Amino acid sequence: MKVDGRHTRTLWLEPDGWAVGTIDQRQLPHRFVTVRLETLADAAEAIRSMLVRGAPLIGATAAYGVCLALRADASDRGLATACETLAATRPTAINLRWALGEMTAAVGRLPVECRVAAAYARAAAIADEDVAINAAIGRHGRALIEDIARRKGGAPVQILTHCNAGWLATVDWGTATAPIYQAHDAGVPLHVWVDETRPRNQGASLTAWELSQHGVPCTLIADNTGGHLMQHGLVDLAIVGTDRVTAQGDVCNKIGTYLKALAAHDNGVPFYVALPSPTIDFAVVDGIREIPIEERGAEEVTLMTGATADGRIETVRIAPAGVAAANYGFDVTPARLVTGLITERGVLPATREGLAAAFPERAGLRAAE
């Protein structure tokens, strides 16, 4: 998508052809900073520290992390160490483990001297596949927006989103934002309500930034505003992303998603989840009981970082010193609250049957395992 009017991806090979470049998302929206990843440790720390974040981008970064590891040690031990190190960085998003499985399958049976080149080829393919998948999600989701626009007679379609499921969370296009970008680029009048998404404020710092960069009309709101907007008819549909979807359609996404889904259900607002197929975990059925929920440091709740009036970036405490704080990163929205799943193969019902019918090759593989 666009940064200062220029097309930009979140992940790329540097001119030397082996190091990996990416955007330090911790610096946004105040600074646009790119970093160079050269080692397995660099890639693991980038994922762990949320320098990169978003399930699809984490997966693509992990794939390149394997490449960087194999440059140093292409043995079986080196491959195993790379996968173990990267898998330990973030527990919730399934794309990470999917990508590591893809990389292992691509190089595991090859002679050691062939592994580095094969790894870079598969990592590049994973990145390009992500772009193509998200573009397809955009086409299917755009049709939903266009249908509402026709019924509204040209009035802007009001869309609510939560967290950042934008191009910054993927290699390009985004998941939840892909339909928005494609509809906007096609001239469909629309407006996006952007949840701030405490405690890391990915909506305020990332979604609002990237929508503004692309010229999409948007308004930042406090996390607890969505229900009020829905009660007053100011939201036509909600579109969010996800870090893992179970075989029966439960959706694990950024904390607060469940509350938005409840409000949407109570007010008759369609609630859609946009996802690439690698985010589906056919090995998990009950999302509430089976998906591990990442718990992050209390400082993300008690501290906040922002820009001062003179341009300095400062971190300040917003809670009493020493107060205990819980920081659950994700919650699970039951399938019954999901209007539809927007995938690269169409808009699906959030059911076991709907997912298995659309992705039989993956559902069958998991069943066999």
Automatic annotation (TrEMBL):
Swiss-Prot/TrEMBL site (Transition state stabilizer) positions: C163
InterPro entries: IF-2B-related, IF-M1Pi, IF_2B-like_C, Initiation_fac_2B_a/b/d, M1Pi_N, NagB/RpiA_transferase-like
GO biological process, one term: L-methionine salvage from methylthioadenosine
One Pfam family cited in the UniProt record for this chain: IF-2B
Keyword terms of this UniProt record: Amino-acid biosynthesis, Isomerase, Methionine biosynthesis
GO molecular function: S-methyl-5-thioribose-1-phosphate isomerase activity
Enzyme Commission numbers on file: 5.3.1.23
Catalytic activity from the UniProt record: 5-deoxy-alpha-D-ribose 1-phosphate = 5-deoxy-D-ribulose 1-phosphate; 5-(methylsulfanyl)-alpha-D-ribose 1-phosphate = 5-(methylsulfanyl)-D-ribulose 1-phosphate
Residues annotated as binding substrate: R53, G54, A55, R90, Q202, N253, K254
Catalytic site: D243
Protein name according to UniProt: Methylthioribose-1-phosphate isomerase
Species per Swiss-Prot/TrEMBL record: Rhodoplanes serenus
Gene: mtnA
